[in-house]
Write the structure tokens for this entry.
Amino acid sequence: MPTYRVKLTPHVSPDIPEDKYHDRNSLRVKIVASDAEGLNDAKIFGHRYTAVNGSTNQDEFCFVCSVADLRAYPVDVPAAGQDPPFFRKDTIDIYLPNPSMYDAFVKEITDQVAILMKSLTGRDSLEATETHGP
């Protein structure tokens, strides 16, 4: 059975646009998935396009993918006509409204990625099992 691994690297950036969380002590966090082992790529974060100001699409992080999501959603951009317009990326880029949320946020993402890796291993175990009838 293959081994499944993804390296997660969190980054903190102080560059907060002035119009974003104005007058708050905000924190911009990026988590990059890389060095995928056992997977086609490290694009394990589900995103979707949302309309901003009625005309511009902006992608936003929505979830850590499940095994089914890895098969269902394309990488980098949603498929034409797909609704909802989900796609996969290797990066989360999010603003936390309070720096005290950082540790819990990174732990939650790390825990969900660990669940994905365990699910991939479990799926392989199920696929490798043969069932014979009476």
About this structure: Residues 102-128 form the longest helix (27 residues). Residues 5-128 form one domain.
